[in-house]
């Protein structure tokens, strides 16, 4: 505990301005920093918002892209299950002809794509209509790999409402003509955390949309989606 206070000692040494002019200047700086911090999130909402739809009214596309959202004991978390349920409705309703599941498989004991595939198959989506991306380590990786590795040019993206706008902006920057389905979610602790996380993730997303870096793992082109769409 003593070490923690030592590391935070600089906070205790900070002195607020005593004059009204100094306080006003400090307030102006705080407001300016807040505005700058919120600009990326505002940009995401403004540019991607019009392309957020529902399962019932989203334009048809060849493929649905479902982003990973964690596992519980090897099975899709409730948030991920809701995304997969939306993809199932899209497929069964004829809105998409195949599903690309993209997630984290960086460890042998953690495999989001296979868990997602298993869930879809158990709920009626044919296995040969599901393609897995095992290197979707974050949203940008999933988007740029979908386009560069799997050849996705047009898609319906599926995620929770707090994340779908960032996914849309990044997939658009990656070269995909996309609409998004924002899946409803209970306003619980996870939802609150996700919403707050998006504010901070928006800055990283803006940089990725401008710089368009390579993903963590690129690899050779995959033909699985082409086969699934035949």
From TrEMBL:
Limits of the DUF218 domain: 63-178
Highest taxon, organism lineage: Bacteria
Coiled coil: none
Protein name stated in the entry: YdcF family protein
């Amino acid at each position: 505990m003593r070490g923690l206070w030592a590391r935070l000692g600089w906070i205790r040494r900070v002195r607020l301005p005593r004059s009204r002019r100094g306080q006003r200047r400090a307030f102006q700086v705080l407001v300016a920093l807040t505005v700058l911090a919120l600009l990326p999130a505002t940009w995401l909402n403004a540019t991607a918002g019009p392309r957020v739809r529902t399962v019932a009214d989203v334009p048809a596309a060849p493929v649905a892209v479902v982003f990973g959202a964690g596992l519980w004991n090897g099975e899709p978390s409730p948030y991920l299950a809701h995304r997969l349920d939306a993809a199932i409705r899209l497929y069964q309703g004829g809105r998409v002809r195949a599903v690309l599941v993209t997630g984290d498989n960086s460890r042998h004991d953690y495999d989001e794509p296979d868990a997602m595939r298993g869930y879809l198959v158990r709920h009626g989506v044919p296995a040969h209509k599901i393609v897995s991306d095992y290197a979707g380590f974050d949203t940008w990786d999933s988007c740029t790999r979908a386009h560069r590795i799997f050849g996705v040019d047009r898609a319906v993206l599926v995620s929770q409402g707090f994340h779908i706008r960032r996914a849309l902006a990044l997939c658009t920057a990656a070269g995909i003509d996309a609409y998004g389905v924002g899946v409803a979610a209970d306003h619980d602790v996870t939802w609150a955390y996700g919403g707050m996380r998006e504010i901070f993730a928006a800055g990283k997303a803006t940089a990725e949309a401008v710089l368009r870096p390579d993903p963590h793992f690129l690899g050779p082109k995959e033909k699985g989606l082409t086969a699934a769409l035949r």
